[in-house]
Amino acid sequence: xxxxxxxxxxxxxxxxxxxxxxxGPGGLLLGQARAAATGRTLxxxxxxxxxxxxxMLVPHGEDAYYSLRPTLGIAPxxxxxxxxxxxxxxxxxxxxSMAALxxxxxxxxxxxxxxxxxxxxxxxxxxxxxxxxxATAQPSTTGWLGRYLxxxxxxxxxALALTAGVPRSLLGSVPVSAxxxxxxxxxxxxxxxxxxxxxxxxxxxxxxxxAGHPHDAGLRAAxxxxxxxxxxxxxxxxxxxxxxAAYPATAFGxxxxxxxxxxxxxxxxxxxxxxxxxxxxxxxxxxxxxxxxQAKLLSQLSNATAAFYADLGSAASGVLLLAVTEFGRTxxxxxxxxxxxxxxxxxxxxxxxxxxxxxxxxxxxxLAPTQxxxxxxxxxxxxxxxxxxxxxxxxxxxxxxxxxxAGYAAQSIGFL
Length: 416
Known about the structure:
The protein has helices at 3-21, 53-56, 63-68, 99-106, 125-134, 144-149, 191-205, 216-238, 251-265, 293-312, 384-395, and strands at residues 41-48, 57-58, 86-87, 93-94, 110-117, 159-161, 271-277, 319-325, 345-350, 357-358, 382-383. By secondary structure, it is an alpha/beta fold. The strands form 2 sheets. Strands 1, 5, 6, 7, 8, 9, 10 and 11 form an 8-stranded mixed β-sheet that branches. The chain has a 3-stranded antiparallel β-sheet with strand order 2-4-3. Residues 6-37 have low confidence and may be disordered.
């Protein structure tokens, strides 16, 4: 079989499969109509590996913190010490590598959410991630955002994961695509094959449908839409940044840039999922020094988030970013210069619609020996579903979030 025949048969199978199955994990979604713009978007960044919330949101006003972390503890805020915490409210401060997010906080765009977790928590990465993304401790084939998508019309055009695979949060009856890098999006490996395939698709799908064929009209429409979708997503990656936005030169920085481009160029995008991994800091975690393992990750998160909102410009008005993690770390540092699997951690909500500040349901649980969970871990003071419930109602317009949160009645938390 020659190359032209092979490509011709491949494009027929591709479009026909997409038409019948509605797309699928790892592939493009071809909706029959563009979703109407709602003006709101939720971007979820999963900090995979268990982020140490005590060194992200530093409780510098509590002496017990420094007793538990004699070498990893971040120094209290000091104008003359670049390795000290960046003060938020006199008790909490950001890690010194989070200067860009600190700037957004000072403008009222950041809500810090300490001690977030769930009852009877697991310290398994896999179990913890499943629970956080499914929003239930019971086995589930759907995620909390997948269930939300199922309530929408035209939902096939409203979500995209810039990840290696579809995250559990987006699993459900509505198929969602996962594309780790829009930069290399193509249906062929070489430029010559791309040109040939594009010409063949244009010719094949511009023909009149076969009379009486039950699928041919839809097949040709799907093929034409496929070309449009690929071109649009390739243009997203090629879109120049705006307003001097400077993203980190990392995979996560590139994905955040692509997320901003997607939001700016594809009205109706409501959900975008990204991952930033590497937070399992059992050793050599580092304290306030910029070359520490956690400091490098926090710098990426902080700088990419600030660049993202600068890049969005006026489009930022309806964009909320939520940074989540499966668990925190032990309150005390270990003998390897790191921290081990823990319990509650810090989440962040960022955007112009947040009520800036530090928010929790039950207040700061404290780090005294009698206050620690099982004597080792930061106790939970906010259930993660309280955060989801607020986002579903206040940002995504869901009237009754309990149906999407496995019957959980969310408590009030005022970050939105």
